[in-house]
Automatic annotation (TrEMBL):
The keyword Signal does not apply. The keyword Chloroplast does not apply. PANTHER family: O-ANTIGEN TRANSPORTER-RELATED (PTHR30250:SF11), PST FAMILY PREDICTED COLANIC ACID TRANSPORTER (PTHR30250). Pfam families: Polysacc_synt_3 (PF13440). It is a multi-pass membrane protein. GO terms for cellular component: plasma membrane. InterPro entries: Poly_Biosynth_Transport. It is found in: Cell membrane. Coiled coil: none annotated. The chain crosses the membrane at residues 12-35, 47-70, 91-112, 124-148, 155-177, 183-204, 224-240, 260-280, 300-320, 340-360, 372-389, 395-413, 425-444, 450-469. This is Undecaprenyl-diphospho-oligosaccharide flippase. It comes from the Bacteria.
Length: 496
């Protein structure tokens, strides 16, 4: 392969990465775009019911879902045999589909005791029943989308994601606004939209790969994935168990306020970290293999951490006015938790960045150990802060635990593979962030919305100037910025 053809392949792959990232964004936008409606037509308790149910479904997926997402791409490209590749995809879908269907049926029959255990009352048994269907449909959707990526069909992928978003929004408006079904409306619309696309994508995928089950392949994929399932428990617990602790120590209202605050913090992971990670997860290994890549890792770390911190400051100080504009007064207190969750998202993303040292040296056991250490830390923090401060305490606990995890992982990773990253610039940015957020959200707040927005805008502009100016003066940072932009946004569709 010539050097020119190698560059063409690399450019096409990076273009695909940008399109897939946009598709992922579209698939996750429904919850955020629905906020003005949810916060007007749902009570905080309704929103809490939905949030707690989503946590339960995520837990059930880990326990009973037999998710094999990680194994499919690995073994798919281990062979050139098209029949074996088709058998791999078909086997994964059949195995997971059968187990997920059994789990979903069990949830339907046990919906009343599950509601009692989850909410403390059987009142929400019907909602449990509707959401249980997602155990099956979401897995089928995900497998089909993985197959589209294996086929390198990015535009089909983004088209599916767009129509999925449109139908989800339309059904939500119909059931929540027109029929005024509250949390039940969210459950019904989620079930219908997921079922529609699961069936359509299942039909497409099975038409391509056929209906085959290979026991040897199934055993191989399970052996590969089960350690990742164990690690997934800790990750889910760290980020989502707060909902259950909130239900025990406070109320469904607090869960609803926490869920609204989380939606703002996910802007960082969905719009910034997600697209970056889609590109970086491949390129980081290329740089590592070249040797002497420490300066590259250092500059990339400064670039993405600066971008996320600047976004976190904006989200932290403008969430209050935005919630006041779009939501009912019962949701206003959600803004108090946003700063902690926003910076928690920054720390969580930087943990993933730092974990590369363990991946590069095949020391993946460190990642699971660090996750379980963080789970222990966050448990102590949840039990200490949630009874005292409700949804704000949950947000504080999560941020502190993720900060501890980041600094522990950073220190441990240096002994495995030192990327040469100094934390001084990050600590400086965090100090500026704390000062600006305190001034904007505590000292200089105003009952006048326009005055409040003006003050926050001025403070944000000053903070951005202080943080960004040193980076903009750095020639290497400017070069990196010019290099990354066209890789995510190709000038011509024919480039990809």
């Amino acid at each position: 392969m010539t050097q020119q053809s190698k560059k063409s392949v690399a450019h096409r792959l990076l273009g695909h990465a940008g399109i897939y990232a946009m598709g992922n964004i579209l698939r996750q936008l429904a919850g955020f775009l629905m906020l003005p409606i949810y916060t007007r037509y749902l009570t905080p308790a309704d929103y809490g019911v939905v949030g707690l149910m989503i946590f339960a479904i995520s837990l059930m997926e880990l326990v009973f879902g037999a998710r094999l997402y990680w194994a499919i791409p690995k073994y798919y490209f281990d062979t050139k045999d098209k029949k074996l590749q088709a058998s791999l995809v078909s086997t994964a879908m059949i195995l997971t589909g059968a187990i997920s269907a059994a789990a979903a049926i069990a949830m339907v029959f046990l919906r009343q005791p599950i509601s009692k255990g989850l909410y403390g009352t059987p009142e929400f048994a019907s909602i449990v029943g509707f959401f249980s269907v997602l155990l099956l449909t979401q897995s089928l959707e995900e497998y089909a989308l993985v197959y589209l990526r294996l086929q390198q069909r990015p535009w089909f992928y983004i088209t599916v994601s767009f129509f999925r978003l449109a139908i989800q929004l339309g059904l939500n408006v119909w059931f929540v606004v027109s029929l005024e079904m509250g949390a039940m409306g969210v459950a019904v619309s989620s079930m219908i939209s997921s079922s529609i696309f699961a069936l359509l994508l299942l039909a497409y995928t099975l038409r391509q790969v056929g209906w085959h089950f290979n026991g040897a392949i199934a055993e191989k994929m399970i052996r590969f994935c089960w350690p990742l399932w164990l690690g997934g428990f800790a990750g889910l617990y760290i980020g989502s168990a707060n909902r259950y602790y909130l239900r025990i120590f406070t109320s469904l209202d607090d869960i609803g306020l926490f869920e609204l605050a989380v939606k703002f913090s996910t802007i960082i992971t969905v719009l910034i970290w997600g697209p970056f990670a889609t590109y970086w997860q491949v390129e980081r290994f290329n740089y590592y293999r070249q040797g002497n890549a420490e300066s590259i890792f250092q500059n990339v770390f400064y670039f993405i951490s600066t971008l996320m911190v600047v976004a976190a400051i904006g989200i932290s100080i403008f969430a209050g006015p935005v919630i006041r504009i779009m939501a009912a007064p019962t949701f206003y207190r959600a803004s108090e938790a946003v700063p902690f969750l926003a910076f928690g998202a920054v720390f969580g993303s930087l943990v993933i960045f730092s974990n590369f040292s363990f991946l590069a040296k095949e020391k993946t056991g460190w990642i699971s150990r660090n996750n379980y250490l963080t789970a222990a830390v966050v448990t102590v923090l949840y039990l200490s802060l949630i009874p005292m401060a409700g949804h704000v305490g949950a947000a504080m606990a999560l941020m502190l635990a993720q900060a501890v995890q980041f600094f522990v992982v950073h220190r441990a990773s240096r002994s495995v593979y030192d990327m040469g990253i100094s934390l001084r610039p990050l600590v400086g940015m965090l100090f500026i962030s704390a000062v600006v957020c305190f001034l904007a959200n505590v000292v200089l707040t105003s009952d006048s919305l326009l005055h409040d927005l003006a003050v926050k805008t001025l403070l944000y502009a000053v903070a951005c100037g202080i943080i960004l100016l040193p980076h903009w003066r750095n020639a290497e940072t400017r070069r990196l910025l010019h290099e990354l932009a066209p890789r995510f946004f190709p000038k011509h569709a024919t480039d990809i």
